[in-house]
């Protein structure tokens, strides 16, 4: 780079003198500072650039001073801060008086919505007295970055392969260790088929504590849970172990916590392993209900090769979905329609192929964790919504995906 | 379980049983004539919904109880006189005959009106604070007036009851008088009618008590409230929960209707009738929040248009009844079509808000896509009967709204229909409109036609630009031309359309021309297309200024739609400039220069840009018409007396060889979507 | 020589026939006891044969005459033969009469032979193919041996060689006709058939009567079998009835399931029951098989299960579940065999003992037990459809002239249109009617057809108890299934009502001038007879009269009236859903379309559902009530509200 | 899968714990759905003779007909441990199971009446010291001292487990639906009443039980304090914001990026 500064003193002079007839034109030419909003054109007609009116003021807000007394230079250093989210209140608990333990499901290493509700509940219990702390107990490889925002003061993670998959007995032993070391005031488990329901009941049976199950409300030291297969509400004293339903409380929203890691108990007794996990079994994705499918490949107007689409769904093991247009045009059956006017979906990954993203459609995929878009139009709403968007021909990308996956599988087979 | 079982669960409101959960909620129809009476048009409009299976209609949005709340601006119903009673009897009979229930919204609008008409009243409000949307000034109401108006409410309710209606809904929403008292934003009183919660509630409570005392326990009395005013100094959701509970706990109320958002600024008003830019049921959470705290049934409307959506909402237990008001304007047979298993045949509201935007201009409520709505009294049918006359060969040219409707209606009549469209897809200008950001729902109009035309098995020829020979090959009995037109950018030769200096909004929206980086949009029409093309360009990253010679860009767009354009355009820093005429465009290097002249001063100024887009309306394409005209038995003439009277064209009945020729929609002269569809329906319903 | 040989032959044949008869009777008596009036039955038998049976046979005029000639000739010839040649009564008159009888029989045999030359598919072959020859043998040989007795030829004519030949031929004839009658052979039908008529399980059917209600099981008798699991579980007269089958295949020709290619052929089923009663396999069966199932793989005996859970026995469960209980076979059977009773008896065993009702069967039965309707709907929502009609509840009034029985169609959106139309008609005629509302339960029809007698009786008992609380003159319903059950099956459980199908009631209202009706100006209309209205209850005229009343001239289908073809919706068939080559409603719609009708008028929710389920071009399906309601002269707007609060 | 296809396991003694259910629409007593599925799963392993049914609770006539629903599945007898409604049934069940010598106990995941907490199988397994697995879809094979099972995971997924016997397993809606209950066997089957020790359930004495309050699923949580933000949160359409947009890539490169995400999320199997 040439760091010798070139100067044009005349222009600088004109630029300083806003009464000079060429003032704006020079400013426009110079390009530096604020662009000129108006100047005299070559034919003697005023030229205006209305986009150039005003400048960013010291508060990060656009400011117009038609007197010209203030201009961009003054606020040049100002940053746009208005857009920043309101800061959460930081809460640190240095020496916890007691713990409320939450054993989260953490599917894929991240907090589920259910987990967050539970942490919200734990927060209520912990904050009821001074210096109560929320202790998150998790297993396996953690990938969650927002534990502090979710209301966690301390994290106790049992890492290691042995805790992955289905290892209830080992996890139970681990929880026993935590119980001995920290003796939490309450243990909260998500009453969910992802694991909390089973682990919580096992743990309660192990400790000999009568837990409250299917709990959806805790207030004034009492809790209410569903009984009789959802037909009744049972209200009782809050026990030590609680298995709570989704939406038992609102997730933490106003504060941020330390989420400080603490070491797991050093030595755990040997667990008796009577159950062995032999791994996942392939299921037919077409047999999985759209509303509960984990992985959806959804087709829209941008799909022209329907055989290719179906093949991609097959190869990827994804459940098929569709936009309204694809359904109306007769390419997909009505029960495959995703959106507010079709089925609301909750997939962990929603791969939309050639869907521009009508507002109803976007509404219906609100609860999906990761949205991937393949579309030729980078400006469409689906791309704006997506966590990952590939701007390319939908059919070609799907074909390439199929090739990659099948190629990979072949390699695996050859290697085996 | 049946797919839509939640919709068809009857519900008890007070002593009244409603046959299903679908309600047409109160809206201003602008049909009450003869000083606010529910006359023929009004009744037929509602009767069609009852025939169509609707459970409950609450008619008469903002129907007034007193003469100092003007009725004439929106032709709303006037309950301030006993003269209304026999009219109500007619209305009630028409609804009850088909098993539907009918109630009316009654209100005093306080400051939310205009004073410069009718009786030139001095508008009243709790603290005399001006209302922005209607630019209305008002006086501070006196206790004597309060007492008088409470009495007016009670008398109005009595008239509704004597007229055989099933109930009344007190409007405490949209900043009418009751909620003017509620809201600390406009109630600054220090007497017993303001200040504390109880005091602010007092007026509404006294009205409720007086009404209940007048009509007794068996007549339904409900109240419509908002869920959150969305004003910093207004009532919040928590406030509204408290208010709802307060009134519900009296046991005097039979139901509560909840609408999200306040209404006394242009921007909040747009929330009340959310157009196509909003997500489905955007304010359901507010209604559900109210339902949590009250013990009476809760009704909620706002962007609920689809049976699946309605089923999901009701099944989820968020509210007890769903308002599907615009859905019924688009298709009053909505409910029956669900029952008949014809969900795909429902003409679904797309949220264009043509209806409500007309209402805010004091015009009668019409539907952008259903020309029969509110023309029932003139004999325009919602269900097209099969013809008992001869089966004809009908050729329709042009697959825009006029052509699609013509083909649909002719096919429903049982004729043999061929439809030519030169593009590869149906829709015409609707397809262009749907390309703009937030306007994609417009395509729903076309989608319905697509499904209908497929169901009716018409002979659809896409990608075929029909000429006289192709048409004649089919030996048609009737030829309907609906070929539309082209963008009128050649009007001023100095614009340089021929030299390619300017492009049309169609070119841009259709994607024929890539968006420039710095674009000037010149819009003489000031409706959707100009704003849409500006929004489209800005969305693609262009720096855009939209200039008009009219007062301001988008000035002809209605009250619930321009705010959503503004919400989209301002963040993209689109500049809106009024009062400048585009004189001339010329090239300067690789730039284009637009020479603009101020309408009022003649002062000239220029813009240096790299693309100039012109929106100057549509010029009809007439070539094919003039080619076919000489051979036509009727010489292409439409008998406008018959047409306007919704009568059959007498040329249809006249014997003779050869074909009849008609043209409709923009290929005659520029109308809009509704105009095109109306042309087609009124002409073709008698084929 | 013949005078010696003939009596020996005759009496030997008679003796053998008698022995055979005793054996056969023994086989039948393996079945369970049945309340039968033996002597009265025997006394009534000739009339049943000559009148009732002939009435059915006479639907085929040509064959009826053939049968009169052959059968009548034979019976006369046989009696005279015994007299003339057996006892040697020397009477020219008798001999001439015998000659005449054999001649008549010969003429009949010629016709039989002609029919057997290229027999239609429905006729069984095998031994039946030799029957004309046997008839010839008998008639010709007896004719010849009688010539001397008649004095036409001298005695001893032709010498011993001819006599020997004649004797052999006579033996053949006698063997087939006498011996075969009881030991099994085509002529078995004469013997078993005659006794079947005498001891028929539904004697009400004779003399123009009608008996179609299923007979209840006695569930209080813990020792009684629940339906029929083995052939011995049939009553003895049912077993006898199976033996009466002539394998004419008229049932097969009428059976909708057979035509649709489902694995059912009523004729084969009856023959399988015969195999079951006598023991053996079906290898000898020489008629059309169950579609898609080869012959020869099934067999059994009287004490073995008819249907096995695994493997093959006498019949497969699918065969039994293919039946729509449309009674077309029963209606058509010249021997008046009760196929449907047998099928339901066997289904009862499958459902109540095996718990094996196919497809949705289990679910439907469970729903009926838990919610009193087959769809599992909330019983409190039965009246939801009529929320805007303010129907009077009989519980609020105690009595009404007409009790409107809604049926489970009240839960079905399509049928709700029919019900609304019916209500409109009743109101227009100012009929004093009321409904049970949510107190109405499913009639039990489908449970009973699916073999769940326990659920049926539970529903029936509770309905009867409810009905007993109120006073009404008639029950009117638009559901022929409910109609049948209420009218014909509740009496056995103590419920006796005057029940009308709505078409009957509407036609009565029309006749009484209580309806102001416009005249039909729409398209061509045909009418589809519901099985449970037509064949089960003999109501063919009222629906047609109702249509005539609004100016509709019904274009009849080829199969209509008592020969109407089932829509496929009866007997729980849509629930058990046994696959075939095509769907029964599609076949029926093809017949409807063949008339060129724009509209098919129906009178049954099942038929409506089945016919509307046909994909592709089809006539519009409208219930009679809908057609009539549409012609009601516009009534002045009535204020419904007052009626409610009253 | 047809039940005939499964090989019967010789010599295995199976017990199923059954309870009186409640029809979700009418509330009438019935065989409980999950329990009936558990029985069905048992019948896929052993002949009805080797299957024991065990119920702990009251045996009123109404409840009896519901319990007979299990007998209608073709099992000759059902043992009823007579226990009053306020009893803790676990000790009685534990004692009975020890007596019976069953190696596999099948339970519905939870009952349809009372607390229905689904704890009983866990308490039994803990007290007996047996293996426990929940949410079984199918038992694939039993081999000596262990069995291979498919466990149902959310979203229709399945996992294969090897479980040491003796074991207590729970069964829910993922398992094969129960066969039809037939009237004859239900009527003939024997309900054997067994008197046993009664342990009162003291903890449950202070509970309040009420009909379930309807709880609509959460819509959106709009926390924003400012009116403008509440407005925006309601009216704005869903947008993620901050997603990665890949332009100008080859289809292969695009596919690779997608594949990477699919692998990270673990949805590709």
Automatic annotation (TrEMBL), chain A:
Residues annotated as signal peptide: none
Pfam families: ETF (PF01012), ETF_alpha (PF00766)
SUPFAM superfamilies hit by this protein: Adenine nucleotide alpha hydrolases-like, DHS-like NAD/FAD-binding domain
Chain spans, region Disordered: 66-86
UniProt entry keywords in alphabetical sequence: Electron transport, Transport
InterPro entries: DHS-like_NAD/FAD-binding_dom (IPR029035), ETF_a/b_N (IPR014730), ETF_a/FixB (IPR001308), ETF_asu_C (IPR014731), Rossmann-like_a/b/a_fold (IPR014729)
Domain called Electron transfer flavoprotein alpha/beta-subunit N-terminal: residue spans: 100-277
Biological process (GO), any one: fatty acid beta-oxidation using acyl-CoA dehydrogenase
Highest taxon listed in the record's lineage: Bacteria
GO MF term (any one): flavin adenine dinucleotide binding
Keyword Transport: yes
Similarity field: Belongs to the ETF alpha-subunit/FixB family.
Name of the protein described by the UniProt record: Electron transfer flavoprotein subunit alpha/FixB family protein
Phylogenetic classification of the source organism: Bacteria, Pseudomonadati, Pseudomonadota, Betaproteobacteria, Rhodocyclales
From TrEMBL, chain B:
Keywords on record: Flavoprotein, Oxidoreductase
InterPro entries found in the cross-reference section: Aldolase_TIM, FAD/NAD-bd_sf, NADH_flavin_oxidoreductase, OxRdtase_FMN_N
Highest taxon, organism lineage: Bacteria
Domain NADH:flavin oxidoreductase/NADH oxidase N-terminal: 7-342
Pfam families linked: FAD_oxidored, Oxidored_FMN
Entry-linked Gene3D superfamilies: Aldolase class I, FAD/NAD(P)-binding domain, NAD(P)-binding Rossmann-like Domain
UniProt KW Oxidoreductase keyword: yes
Record-level Gene Ontology MF annotations: FMN binding; oxidoreductase activity
Keyword field contains Lyase: no
Name assigned to this protein: Dimethylglycine demethylation protein DgcA
Gene: dgcA
From TrEMBL, chain C:
Superkingdom per UniProt: Bacteria
Record SUPFAM superfamilies: alpha-helical ferredoxin
InterPro entries attached to this UniProt entry: 4Fe4S_Fe-S-bd (IPR017896), 4Fe4S_Fe_S_CS (IPR017900), Csal_0991-like_N (IPR021872), Cys_rich_dom (IPR004017), HdrC_iron-sulfur_subunit (IPR051460), Helical_ferredxn (IPR009051)
GO cellular component, one term: plasma membrane
Pfam families per the UniProt record, alphabetical: CCG, DUF3483, Fer4_8
GO molecular function: 4 iron, 4 sulfur cluster binding; metal ion binding; oxidoreductase activity
Coiled-coil residue spans: none
Membrane-spanning segments: 33-50, 62-87, 93-114, 135-153, 159-179
Keywords: 4Fe-4S, Iron, Iron-sulfur, Membrane, Metal-binding, Oxidoreductase, Transmembrane, Transmembrane helix
Positions of the 4Fe-4S ferredoxin-type domain: 236-266, 311-342
Protein name: (Fe-S)-binding protein
Organism per entry: Denitromonas iodatirespirans
Source species taxonomy: Bacteria, Pseudomonadati, Pseudomonadota, Betaproteobacteria, Rhodocyclales
From TrEMBL, chain D:
Domain Electron transfer flavoprotein alpha/beta-subunit N-terminal span(s) in chain numbering: 33-194
Keyword Transport in annotation: yes
InterPro entries documented for this protein: ETF_a/b_N, ETF_b, Rossmann-like_a/b/a_fold
Protein name per the record: Electron transfer flavoprotein subunit beta
Tree of life domain: Bacteria
Keywords: Electron transport, Transport
Organism: Denitromonas iodatirespirans
Family: Belongs to the ETF beta-subunit/FixA family.
């Amino acid at each position: 780079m040439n760091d010798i500064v070139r100067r044009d003193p005349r222009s600088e002079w004109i630029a300083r003198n806003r009464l000079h007839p060429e003032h704006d034109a020079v400013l426009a030419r110079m390009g530096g500072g604020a662009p000129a909003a108006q100047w005299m054109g070559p034919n003697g007609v005023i030229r205006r650039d209305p986009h150039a009116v005003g400048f960013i003021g010291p508060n990060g807000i656009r400011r117009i001073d038609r007197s010209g007394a203030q201009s961009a230079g003054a606020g040049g250093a100002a940053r746009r801060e208005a857009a920043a989210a309101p800061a959460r209140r930081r809460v640190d608990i240095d020496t916890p008086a007691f713990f409320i333990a939450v054993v989260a499901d953490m599917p894929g290493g991240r907090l589920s919505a259910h987990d967050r509700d539970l942490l919200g509940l734990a927060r209520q219990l912990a904050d009821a007295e001074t210096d109560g702390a929320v202790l998150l107990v998790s297993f396996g490889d953690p990938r969650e970055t927002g534990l502090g925002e979710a209301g966690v003061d301390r994290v106790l993670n049992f890492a290691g392969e042995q805790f992955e998959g289905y290892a209830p007995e080992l996890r139970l032993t681990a929880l026993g260790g935590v119980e001995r070391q920290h003796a939490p005031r309450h243990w909260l488990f998500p009453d969910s088929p992802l694991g909390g329901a089973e682990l919580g009941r096992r743990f309660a049976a192990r400790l000999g504590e009568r837990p409250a199950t299917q709990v959806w409300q805790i207030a004034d030291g009492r809790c209410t849970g569903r009984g009789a297969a959802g037909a009744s509400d049972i209200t009782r004293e809050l026990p030590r172990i609680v298995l709570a339903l989704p939406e038992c409380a609102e997730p933490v929203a106003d504060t941020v916590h330390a989420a400080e890691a603490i070491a797991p108990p050093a030595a755990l007794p040997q667990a008796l392993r009577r159950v062995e996990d032999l791994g996942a079994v392939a299921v037919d994705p077409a047999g999985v209900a759209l509303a509960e499918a984990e992985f959806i490949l959804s087709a829209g107007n941008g799909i022209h090769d329907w055989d290719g689409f179906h093949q991609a769904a097959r190869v990827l093991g994804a459940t098929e979905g569709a936009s309204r247009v694809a359904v109306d045009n007769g390419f997909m059956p009505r029960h495959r329609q995703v959106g507010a006017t079709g089925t609301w979906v909750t997939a962990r990954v929603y791969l939309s192929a050639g869907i521009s993203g009508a507002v109803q459609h976007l509404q219906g995929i609100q609860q999906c964790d990761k949205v991937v878009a393949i579309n030729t139009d980078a400006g469409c709403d689906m791309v704006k919504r997506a966590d990952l968007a590939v701007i390319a021909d939908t059919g070609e990308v799907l074909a390439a995906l199929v090739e990659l996956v099948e190629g990979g599988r072949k390699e695996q087979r050859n290697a085996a | 379980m049946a797919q839509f079982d939640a919709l068809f669960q009857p519900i008890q409101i007070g002593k009244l049983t409603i046959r299903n959960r679908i309600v047409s909620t109160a809206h201003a129809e602008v049909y009450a004539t003869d000083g606010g009476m529910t006359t023929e048009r009004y009744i037929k409009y509602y009767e069609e919904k009852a025939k169509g299976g609707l459970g409950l209609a609450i008619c008469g949005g903002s129907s007034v109880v007193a003469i100092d709340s003007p009725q004439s601006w929106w032709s709303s119903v006037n309950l301030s006189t006993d003269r209304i009673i026999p009219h109500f009897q007619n209305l009630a009979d028409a609804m009850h005959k088909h098993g539907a229930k009918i109630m009316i919204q009654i209100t005093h609008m306080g400051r939310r009106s205009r004073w410069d008409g009718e009786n030139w009243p001095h508008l009243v409000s709790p603290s005399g604070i001006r209302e922005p949307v209607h630019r209305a000034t008002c006086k501070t109401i006196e206790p004597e007036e309060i007492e008088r108006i409470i009495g007016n409410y009670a008398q109005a309710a009595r008239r509704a009851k004597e007229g055989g209606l099933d109930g009344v809904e007190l409007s405490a929403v949209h900043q009418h008088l009751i909620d003017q008292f509620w809201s600390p934003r406009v109630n600054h009183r220090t007497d017993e009618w303001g200040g504390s919660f109880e005091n602010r509630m007092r007026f509404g409570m006294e009205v409720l008590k007086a009404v209940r005392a007048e009509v007794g326990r068996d007549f339904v009395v409900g109240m419509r409230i908002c869920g959150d005013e969305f004003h910093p100094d207004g009532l919040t959701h928590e406030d509204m929960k408290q208010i709802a509970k307060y009134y519900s706990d009296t046991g005097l109320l039979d139901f509560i209707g909840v609408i999200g958002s306040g209404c006394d600024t242009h921007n909040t008003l747009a929330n009340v009738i959310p157009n196509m830019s909003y997500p489905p049921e955007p304010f359901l959470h507010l209604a559900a929040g109210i339902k949590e705290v009250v013990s009476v049934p809760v009704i909620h409307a706002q962007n609920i248009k689809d049976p699946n959506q309605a089923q999901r909402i009701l099944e989820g237990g968020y509210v007890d009844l769903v308002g599907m008001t615009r859905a019924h304007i688009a298709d009053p047979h909505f409910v029956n079509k669900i029952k008949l298993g014809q969900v795909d045949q429902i003409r679904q509201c797309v949220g264009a808000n043509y209806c409500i935007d007309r209402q805010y201009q004091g015009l009668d409520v019409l539907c952008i896509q259903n020309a029969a709505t509110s023309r029932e009294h003139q004999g325009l049918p919602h269900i097209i009967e099969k013809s008992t006359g001869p089966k004809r060969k009908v050729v329709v040219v042009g697959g825009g709204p006029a052509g699609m409707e013509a083909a649909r209606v002719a096919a429903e009549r049982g004729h043999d229909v061929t439809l030519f469209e030169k593009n590869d897809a149906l829709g015409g200008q609707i397809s262009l409109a749907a390309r703009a950001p937030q306007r994609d729902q417009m395509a729903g109009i076309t989608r319905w036609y697509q499904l209908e035309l497929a169901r009716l098995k018409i002979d659809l020829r896409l990608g075929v630009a029909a000429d006289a020979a192709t048409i004649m090959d089919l030996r048609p009995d009737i030829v309907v031309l609906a070929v539309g037109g082209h963008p009128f950018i050649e009007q001023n030769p100095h614009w340089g359309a021929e030299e390619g200096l300017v492009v049309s909004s169609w070119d841009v929206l259709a994607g024929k021309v890539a968006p420039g980086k710095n674009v000037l949009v010149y819009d003489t029409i000031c409706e959707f297309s100009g704003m849409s093309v500006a929004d489209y360009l800005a969305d693609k990253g262009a720096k855009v200024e939209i200039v008009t010679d009219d007062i301001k860009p988008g000035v002809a767009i209605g009250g619930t739609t321009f705010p959503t354009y503004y919400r989209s355009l301002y963040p993209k820093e689109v500049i809106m400039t009024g009062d400048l005429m585009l004189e001339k465009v010329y090239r300067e290097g690789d730039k284009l220069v637009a020479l603009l002249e101020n309408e009022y001063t003649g002062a000239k100024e220029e813009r240096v840009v790299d693309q100039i887009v012109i929106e100057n309306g549509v010029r009809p394409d007439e070539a094919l018409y003039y080619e076919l005209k000489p051979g036509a038995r009727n010489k292409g003439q439409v008998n406008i007396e018959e047409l306007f009277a919704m009568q059959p064209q007498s040329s249809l009945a006249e014997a003779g060889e050869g074909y009849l020729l008609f043209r409709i929609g923009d290929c005659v002269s520029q109308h809009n979507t509704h105009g095109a569809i109306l042309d087609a329906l009124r002409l073709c319903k008698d084929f | 020589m013949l005078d010696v040989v003939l009596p020996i032959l005759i009496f030997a044949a008679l003796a053998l026939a008698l022995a055979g008869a005793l054996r056969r009777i023994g086989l039948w008596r393996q079945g369970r006891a049945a309340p039968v009036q033996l002597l009265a039955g025997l006394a009534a038998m000739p009339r049943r044969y000559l009148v009732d049976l002939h009435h059915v046979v006479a639907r085929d005029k040509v064959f009826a005459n053939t049968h009169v000639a052959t059968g009548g000739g034979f019976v006369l010839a046989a009696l005279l033969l015994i007299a003339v040649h057996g006892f040697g009564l020397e009477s020219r008159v008798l001999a001439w009469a015998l000659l005449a009888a054999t001649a008549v029989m010969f003429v009949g045999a010629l016709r039989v032979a002609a029919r057997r030359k290229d027999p239609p598919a429905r006729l069984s072959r095998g031994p039946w193919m030799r029957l004309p020859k046997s008839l010839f043998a008998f008639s010709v040989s007896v004719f010849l041996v009688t010539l001397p007795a008649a004095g036409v030829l001298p005695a001893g004519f032709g010498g011993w060689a001819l006599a020997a030949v004649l004797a052999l031929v006579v033996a053949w004839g006698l063997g087939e006709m006498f011996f075969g009658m009881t030991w099994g052979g085509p002529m078995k039908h004469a013997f078993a058939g005659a006794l079947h008529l005498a001891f028929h399980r539904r004697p009400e059917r004779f003399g123009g009567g009608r008996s179609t209600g299923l007979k209840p099981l006695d569930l209080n008798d813990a020792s009684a079998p629940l339906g029929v699991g083995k052939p011995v579980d049939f009553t003895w007269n049912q077993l006898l009835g199976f033996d009466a089958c002539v394998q004419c295949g008229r049932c097969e020709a009428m059976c909708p399931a057979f035509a649709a290619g489902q694995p059912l052929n009523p004729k084969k089923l009856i023959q399988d029951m015969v195999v079951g009663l006598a023991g053996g396999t079906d290898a000898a069966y020489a008629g059309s098989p169950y579609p898609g199932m080869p012959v020869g793989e099934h067999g059994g005996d009287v004490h073995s299960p008819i249907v096995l859970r695994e493997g093959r026995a006498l019949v497969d469960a699918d065969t039994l579940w293919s039946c729509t209980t449309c009674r077309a076979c029963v209606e058509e059977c010249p021997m008046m065999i009760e196929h449907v009773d047998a099928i339901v008896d066997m289904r009862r065993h499958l459902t109540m003992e095996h718990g094996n009702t196919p497809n949705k069967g289990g679910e439907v039965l469970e729903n009926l037990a838990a919610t009193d309707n087959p769809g599992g709907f909330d019983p409190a929502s039965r009246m939801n459809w009529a929320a805007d009609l303010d129907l009077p509840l009989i519980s609020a009034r105690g009595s009404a002239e007409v009790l409107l029985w809604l049926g489970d169609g009240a839960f079905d959106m399509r049928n709700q249109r029919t019900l609304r139309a019916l209500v409109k008609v009743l109101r227009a005629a100012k009929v004093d009617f009321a409904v049970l509302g949510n107190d109405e339960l499913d009639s039990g029809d489908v449970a009973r057809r699916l073999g769940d007698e326990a659920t049926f009786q539970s529903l029936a008992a509770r309905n009867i108890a409810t009905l007993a609380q109120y006073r009404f003159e008639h029950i009117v319903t638009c559901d022929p299934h409910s109609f049948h059950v209420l009218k014909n099956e509740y009496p056995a459980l103590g419920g006796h009502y005057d029940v009308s199908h709505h078409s009957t009631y509407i036609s009565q209202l029309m006749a009484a001038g209580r309806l102001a009706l416009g005249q039909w100006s729409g398209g061509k209309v045909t009418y589809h007879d519901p099985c449970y209205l037509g064949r089960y209850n003999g109501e063919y005229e009222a629906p047609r009269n109702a249509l005539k009343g609004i100016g509709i001239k019904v274009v009849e289908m080829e199969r209509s009236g008592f020969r109407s073809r089932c829509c496929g919706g009866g007997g729980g068939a849509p629930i058990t859903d046994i696959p075939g080559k095509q769907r029964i409603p599609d076949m029926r719609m093809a017949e409807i379309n063949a008339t060129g009708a724009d509209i098919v008028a129906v009178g049954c929710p099942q038929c409506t559902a089945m016919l509307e389920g046909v994909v592709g071009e089809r006539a519009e399906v409208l219930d009679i009530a809908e057609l009539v309601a549409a012609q009601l002269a516009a009534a002045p707007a009535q204020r419904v509200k007052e009626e409610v609060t009253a | 899968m047809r039940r005939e296809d499964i090989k019967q396991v010789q010599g295995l003694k199976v017990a199923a714990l059954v309870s009186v259910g409640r029809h979700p629409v009418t509330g009438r007593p019935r065989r409980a759905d999950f329990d009936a599925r558990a029985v069905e799963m048992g019948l896929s392993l052993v002949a009805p003779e080797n299957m024991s049914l065990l119920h702990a609770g009251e045996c009123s006539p109404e409840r009896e007909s519901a319990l007979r629903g299990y007998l209608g599945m073709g099992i000759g007898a059902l043992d009823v441990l007579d226990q009053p409604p306020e009893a803790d049934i676990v000790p009685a069940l534990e004692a009975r199971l020890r007596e019976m010598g069953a190696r596999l106990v099948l339970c519905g995941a939870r009952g349809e009446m009372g607390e229905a907490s689904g704890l009983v199988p866990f308490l039994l397994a803990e007290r007996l010291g047996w293996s426990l697995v929940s949410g079984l879809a199918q038992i694939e094979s039993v081999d000596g001292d262990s069995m291979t099972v498919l466990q149902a995971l959310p979203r229709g997924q399945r996992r294969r487990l090897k479980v040491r016997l003796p074991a207590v397993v729970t069964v829910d809606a993922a398992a094969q639906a129960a066969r039809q209950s037939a009237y004859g066997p239900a009527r003939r089957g024997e309900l054997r009443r067994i008197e046993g020790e009664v342990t009162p359930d003291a903890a449950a004495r202070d509970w309040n039980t009420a009909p379930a309050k309807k709880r609509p699923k959460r819509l959106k949580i709009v926390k924003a304090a400012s009116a403008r933000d509440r407005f925006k949160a309601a009216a704005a359409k869903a947008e993620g914001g901050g997603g990665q947009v890949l332009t100008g890539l080859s289809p292969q490169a695009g596919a690779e990026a997608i594949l990477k995400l699919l692998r990270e999320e673990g949805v590709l199997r």
